[in-house]
Amino acid sequence: MESTLGKPNATAILFFCLVVIGTLIITYFAAKKTKTTSEFYAAGRSVTGFQNGLALAGDYMSAASFLGISGMVALSGYDGAIYAVGWLVGWPALMFLIAEPLRNLGKFTFADVVASRLKSGPIRIASAVGGLLVVLCYTIAQMVGSGKLIQMMFGMPYEMAEIIVGVVMLMYVLFGGMLATTWVQIIKAVLLVFGVTVLAVLAMAKFNFSFSTLYTEVVTMYPADNMLNPGGLITSPIDAFSLGLALMFGLLGLPHILMRFFTVPDAKEARKSVVYATTFIGYFYLIIPIVGFAAAVLIGKANIKAIDAGGNMAAPALAEMLGGTPFLGFIAAVAFATILAVVAGLTLAASSAMSHDIYVSVFKKGHASEEEQVKVARISVVIFGVAAVALGILFKGQNVAFLVGLAFAIAASANFPALFLSILWKKMTTQGAVWSILVGSATAAILIILSPTIWVNILGNEKAIFPMKNPAIFSMTASFVVAIVVSLLTPEPEAQEKFEDDKIRTYLGIGAE
């Protein structure tokens, strides 16, 4: 098919400018209300459950979900849909296990929760290491998606596209903090759900709104590829199980998602946030595979790969085919807003780890003025933004959903076991939490480097040292085992006493900020 992707597109540029101007206006007004650390990191705890639910959905329905899953389904069929299901099933666990205690025990970051009854210094250093690793991996995926999208829409070099994304994102976070990021997420979530719904309806119209016709066409066009059965992307059952663990429990360790629970006034609104977020996200993940399968039939795998080897442009290409360049422009602008908002949230999480957990809590022992804290937070934002652009350029050409899957593996291994056990297990100690985070982070990161993704695809070696694509089954288990063994070997009576004292605050919210 003839496509304008890769050439400058006036309609797309118009929508792109409207989105950027609109969101910068929001940032301008948010900047006026962002003076203190509470306003910078937690929007002054003024966000309602419904607003936060939409913002959570916006944070979660990232470029990886929209561009990555649709592309993965278009190229690999059923296995791409595993990502959609895996990312959804973690939400009930988040609601029942984490949301309320997190809001009641924490202040700005998940390290606040783990450190609430343990020794603050070592916990915050270890948490910052784990948190930054997760956020970096997640950011790489978003930056790759954004660079590819802008390159395709504007016909400019990929590296220049990365720099533009980095500059716009920095403006959101530096001046507007969490309040601007929240409103950008809300607007983007509404636009994304609307855009994907229109795309799915237009696609289904081509198949007389019959799923049977759609799937029959898929099987007829690709008889040898087995598109409706597992094995197209993940061939080993253990690898599939490991990926499922990472996707489900990684959610419970994502710093930028956990941070959102500190923006609401109380635990009740935190719980409401998850209910609303699950509704929006569930709907989105239900319809996104339709886009992928329709793209495989209407555009063809060869054409999708010709536009982008990772398949990330399947949804925009389908939008152009079904709605012409105006709809392509709208979808591209929504995708761009999606990426910017998610990267802004990730940058805020990274900034909080560097400034709040390391600089203020460890180096300054909590003694830093509001002005100094906000200044350090903004410097951290710039450092992380530059690193994000550089890594986005380095990982050019990878499928973004797959890269996010790796970020989930680190989150499930580094953050989730320590967070979970510190809330629910009385015998958890400082040493246990620290070693759990460090072992989980290191094991996941090393196994990912030795896996086919990095060792073969990026570094160009012939054969991977670690054969599986996702390491969560080993790294998460190692993190739990280390946490339990080290805690039992290093009993901490003071932490056990605080566990009893914290129960009222954990479950009833009495004493929470």
TrEMBL record:
Keyword Ribonucleoprotein: no
Keyword annotations from UniProtKB, A to Z: Cell membrane, Ion transport, Membrane, Sodium, Symport, Transmembrane, Transmembrane helix, Transport
Entry keyword annotation includes Heme: no
Membrane topology note: Multi-pass membrane protein
Pfam families assigned: SSF (PF00474)
Xref: InterPro entries: Na/Glc_symporter_sf, Na/solute_symporter, Na/solute_symporter_CS, Sodium:Solute_Symporter
Entry's Gene Ontology molecular function annotations: acetate transmembrane transporter activity; symporter activity
Any single Gene Ontology cellular-component annotation: plasma membrane
Main location: membrane
Membrane-spanning residues: 12-31, 52-75, 81-102, 123-143, 163-184, 191-211, 231-254, 274-299, 327-355, 376-395, 401-425, 437-460, 472-490
Domain of life: Bacteria
GO BP terms in the entry: monoatomic ion transport; plasma membrane acetate transport
Subcellular location, record wording: Cell membrane
Family classification: Belongs to the sodium:solute symporter (SSF) (TC 2.A.21) family.
Listed name of the protein: Cation/acetate symporter
Organism: Seleniivibrio woodruffii
